[in-house]
Amino acid sequence: MTLATEVKKLTESKPFYAVAGVGDYAVEKLRELPEHLQKLQSRRFELAKELPVKAREYADKAEGIARELPGKARTYADQLTHKASEVYEEFATRGRRVVSKTTGEAALELEEVSVAAEPPVAEPVKPARKPRSSSTAGTTGKAKA
What's the angle, vertex CA 128, arms to CA 122 and CA 134, rounded to 5? Predict the structure, then answer.
């Protein structure tokens, strides 16, 4: 493909238009910046007078938030711990059911397989007793001298 074809394909894509839109928005906001700076400069004396009051207000708000933060953090942590425990228990219960069902089925299958795979057990054959002959009846196995 030629470079012109690649460029045309790129410029017709949605991501290209998104990037172009972001660039246009950035330019618009940068053009507004000098006007905002002028307004702030014209109000700098007024803002400087308000600064201690605003700083005190923000500091008071920050203190209030800082005082509430440990309690709120503890509450959120407790809620999160409680929810995590609930989810853990639900998974544990579910896991138990699955394992119980699987091991029960596996035990039955194992029993069936082992019964089918076992060779039949032959009963032990009792050796036949030889009848004692009359010539060996009186000997105990010792040789006569």
Answer: 175
47, 40 contact by CB (below 8 A): yes
Return the structure tokens found at 82: 């409680």
Lowest mean pLDDT across 24-28, 51-55, 127-131: 127-131
3-state DSSP assignment of residue 97: helix
* Model pLDDT for residues 64-89, shown as the tens digit of each residue: 888 888 888 889 898 999 898 787 87
Measured distance CA(92)–CA(82) in Å, rounded: 15
Task: With beta carbons less than 8 A apart as the criterion, state whether 56 and 50 touch.
Answer: no
Please name the residue that has the structure tokens 């007078």.
49
Instruction: Output the pTM of the full model.
Output: 0.32
**Token pair of 140, please?**
């105990």
Give residue 92's Cα distance to chain centre: 14
